[in-house]
Amino acid sequence: MSIKIVVIGAGSAIFGTGALATLIREPKLRGATLGLCDINAQTLETMHQLAERMNREWDAGMSIQASTDRRTLLPDADFVIVCIQVGPREVVWRQDWEIPLRHGVRQPYAENSGPGGFAHTCRNVPEMLDIAHDMEELCPNAWMINFTNPLSRLGMAVNRYSRIRCVGLCHQFLWAYAMVAAVLADEYGIETPNGDEFNVHTDATNIPPLMQMIRTGYERFNILSSGINHFAWIQSLVDRKTGEDVYPLFREQYLNRFRRTFEPMTRELFEIFGICPTAGDTHMVEYLAWTHDPLAKPWEKYDLKLQSWDGNITRRKNVRARADAMAAGIEPIEHLRTVHSEGAVEMILGITYDANTYYPAVSIPNRGALPGLPDWAITEVPCVLNRAGIHGVSVPALPPAITELCRREVELASVVVDAAATGDRALALQALLLDPMINDIDRARAILDDFLGSFAEWLPQFS
Asked: What pTM did the predictor assign?
């Protein structure tokens, strides 16, 4: 196999181990060249040792290289997988939430939209574009497969400011399977972990039961969804075995019979707009104007959870310690043969083998796939993969009101991306004033000044 794959951010505690396992265990990638890059030499060495162990024990026949300098790995690459973070992940994320709060804006999540999403975008865009420009020089025909958030905005930046082909991948569409499985558990004889306490929050301690319900739901149901990343909507829901339309049953159960503490904002929007969001409350609420009012306190009304930053730090330490043990040969690695694929392997095989493979959710330029949104918008739609590339599947139009919510977000994202790419402070202020969570000009100016001061070392474009 002459294919060459480069993973930038290979030392990621959460992403790295699974990503490498899915690549190395894949029989059709036997003999490929795999390049591993991370700016942290210590974690990179751990992942290099672990990758070599998987390569050896699974007889993958790969040629594996590692370097802290991506330019030594990129020449002639066919696929470049990117999972990076500018700044210490939990530290800057907490600041993305706390800085606007100092100025009177309480965001619900602060990762992909809202003022926190603005700061997150501005930190990551320069590095993403540097990677894309290196690819233009060293592997201009390669596909960038991006897992970094804010996914839609970074994809927009790469498509707008480089010639590199880019696809964004996110597992959040799978949350819909967990929600459907939970709501229809009695009808389908599904055992729900944690019983009436089950939810689809992404806190570290909730990941095992959530993954269990995702697997269970995926086995039983087939979902067609579309929208934008973390703000997609279920368009059809059928029983995989019988082909029966179970959307009416799901609607009846969720809106009228199921416990009202289960993803209450999702249920509210389902009832109002007629179709169900896919992402669960914590991510979806980033895109809404009704989640931050200090008088209504919707975070209490809908029990909107913040990310558990301390919990994630602990989880990363535990995952890192286990990776060290596996790399050293102390712990077994066979469980990695079944770790969930995040979609990169499917992208690589579908394109390389001209397979016309269907994949349920990618973030790519719209180009007419989802009616009502601009061609340049990065939408989350199903796709078909073949040698000619990644082709969005045309889906039915979303209800007009939902289309408008998505349109507002992509237009906001467009201004944010231009500000992040150019370092134009006037555009940055305009971007914050377009944000539905900001309702005062002086407040927007204060938040922008605080962001630019607090994150100056990671915002070279604004210096």
From this structure: 0.96
